[in-house]
Amino acid sequence: MPVLDPNPQNGQKKLLLVLGAMLGITVIIAIIASLASP
Question: Membrane-spanning residues where (predicted)?
Fold first, then answer.
């Protein structure tokens, strides 16, 4: 079973979406923290 399926099932797509959202939120928090630090 490949890690990145060309046609992922609904559960896998949802999991990828959640992981992507978590990664994006982490990046945004890191950018805000680096801007807020003097």
Answer: 15-36
